[in-house]
């Protein structure tokens, strides 16, 4: 009897062992690669990849602080107080627009599957009623928040519970990748509310652009959600509320600007001389020319002779380098408490969304700025050029923002731009010119002294420097 039971157990184990093989075979026969790729194309709202969550080590970068939108963070205790305001948003729309609640629900029900397909990690067991209620309340809430400058309730702006702070935090929550709802929800609600009287895409784009401080821009193609609109605004345009760069207009201009024509003439003359003469000049003035290494930070680029310039409006995130003039042009950015969260979520979206493969514009920009900003001195230099405006407590804090943004992202530098910069700073002549400009063209007397020294050297012709002043050692003779 015992042997029979043992034999049965062995047979059962073999059957169980083979069963998973059968299941895999059946699944393989049913597998349709095209169905997976079709679903992938419809997806636009994702959870952060685990490695990015670990690298950031800060939950608030991807977790809403005040308002849960969509299914990923719904039900969290600290977000419950805002649920009542979502209902107020719906009631306000029903009262003002005189629209039917059933019409709003029906318009969303018609596209329910399309809305579900937007989510990469949606629980398939989520009931239809719960999903549609969530889309309706969140959609009405977003529309009211976006238009709250024009809407008032008893003299108090809607959803401004304790003043402007609440308003600002909600806007920040609306830019989190895990906290998005499909823009289709807002389009369908507007169809009912506006009765087809406006172009919904243009209207929504304009609302989002203006609420986040951008000029209204024509955006090609339909957007997936608010974060997608914000990204396109950032790439194609620039904020409207940036402060003007502090200027020295009206005051005494730097002496170098007055002497620049002379410097160019002198520079050409020096280039025609034997290489030993400019090196000797720099040695004579107390500084030996050394070839720069692999330079990356703003201060080191500056020391190597590269000038920084703020880009013109509508330059987006485009960074350019004029090799002839040695000028690096960078778009303006304001650094505040929400900068890290905003850019981290934009980079997560670029990484996860298949339609953006090969188009990681924001990630490339952040990678470059992370290389450019290492210390407080780098931030201070960029602030002085009007490229950065620091709203944080110190330049050190601002530097930490970009240092943190660099964690967990794949290096995505613009190779062509980087090669141009490294080639420029590797030039001995550019380094010597930068040193002269920095140390001997900042006041008239040092400028005149240098001019006299160069004239004397030119008059002496093929002079041989005194051994004590030679820039090379005996072993190089």
Key descriptive features of the protein:
single chain; 477 residues; mainly alpha; three-stranded mixed sheet; 21 helices; globular; disordered C terminus
Could you walk me through the main structural features you see in this protein, from its secondary elements to its overall organization?
55% of the residues lie in helices and 4% in strands. The chain is built from 21 helices and seven strands. It has helices at 2-30, 33-42, 50-56, 83-97, 101-109, 112-117, 128-146, 164-173, 183-194, 200-211, 226-236, 255-272, 276-284, 298-303, 339-352, 361-372, 376-384, 395-405, 415-425, 428-440, 444-460; strands at residues 152-153, 156-157, 307-310, 320-322, 327-330, 333-335, 388-390. The strands form three sheets. It has a three-stranded mixed beta sheet, with helices on one face. β4 and β5 (327-330) form a beta hairpin. α5 (101-109) crosses α7, α5 runs antiparallel to α9 (183-194) and α15 crosses α16 (361-372). The radius of gyration is 31 Å and the shape is globular. The protein starts with a helix and ends in a 17-residue tail after the last helix.
Summarize, please:
With 477 residues, this protein is mostly helical. It is built from 21 helices and seven strands.
């Amino acid at each position: 009897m015992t042997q029979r039971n043992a034999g049965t157990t062995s047979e059962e184990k073999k059957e169980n062992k083979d069963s998973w093989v059968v299941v895999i075979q059946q699944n393989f026969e049913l597998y349709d690669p095209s169905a997976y790729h079709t679903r992938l194309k419809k997806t636009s709202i994702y959870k952060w990849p685990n490695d990015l969550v670990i690298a950031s080590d800060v939950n608030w970068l991807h977790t809403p602080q005040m308002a849960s939108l969509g299914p990923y963070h719904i039900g969290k205790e600290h977000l419950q107080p805002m649920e009542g305001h979502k209902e107020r948003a719906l009631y306000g729309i029903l009262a003002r627009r005189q629209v039917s609640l059933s019409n709003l629900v029906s318009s969303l029900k018609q596209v329910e599957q399309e809305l579900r397909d937007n989510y990469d990690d949606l629980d398939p067991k989520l009931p239809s009623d719960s999903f549609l209620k969530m889309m309706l309340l969140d959609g009405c809430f977003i529309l009211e928040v976006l238009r709250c400058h024009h809407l008032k309730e008893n003299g108090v702006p809607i959803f401004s519970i304790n003043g402007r702070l609440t308003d600002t935090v909600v806007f920040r929550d609306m830019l989190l990748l895990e906290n998005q709802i499909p823009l289709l929800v807002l389009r369908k609600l507007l169809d009912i509310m506006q009765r087809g009287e406006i172009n919904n895409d243009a209207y929504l784009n304009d609302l989002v652009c203006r609420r986040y401080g951008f000029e209204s821009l024509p955006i090609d193609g339909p957007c997936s959600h608010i974060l997608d609109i914000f990204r396109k605004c950032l790439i194609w345009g620039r904020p409207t509320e940036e402060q003007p760069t502090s200027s020295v207009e009206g005051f005494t201009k730097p002496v170098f600007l007055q002497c620049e024509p002379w410097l160019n003439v002198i520079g050409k003359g020096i280039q025609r001389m034997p290489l030993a003469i400019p090196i000797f000049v720099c040695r004579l003035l107390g500084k030996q020319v050394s070839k720069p290494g692999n330079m990356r930070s703003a201060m080191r680029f500056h020391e190597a002779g590269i000038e920084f310039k703020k880009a013109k409006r509508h330059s987006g995130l485009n960074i350019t380098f004029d090799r002839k003039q040695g000028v690096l042009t960078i778009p303006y950015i304001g650094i505040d408490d929400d900068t890290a969260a905003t850019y981290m979520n934009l980079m997560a979206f670029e990484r996860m969304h298949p339609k953006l493969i090969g188009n990681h514009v924001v990630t490339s920009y952040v990678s470059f700025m992370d290389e450019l900003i290492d210390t407080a001195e780098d931030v201070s230099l960029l602030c002085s050029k009007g490229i950065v405006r620091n709203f944080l407590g110190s330049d050190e804090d601002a530097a930490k923002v970009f240092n943190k943004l660099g964690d967990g992202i794949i290096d995505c530098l613009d190779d062509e731009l980087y090669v141009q910069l490294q080639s420029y700073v590797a030039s001995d002549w550019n380094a010597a010119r930068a040193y002269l400009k920095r140390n001997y063209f900042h006041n008239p007397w040092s400028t005149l002294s240098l001019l006299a020294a160069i004239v004397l050297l030119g008059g002496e012709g093929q002079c041989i420097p005194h051994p004590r002043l030679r820039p090379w050692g005996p072993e190089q003779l």
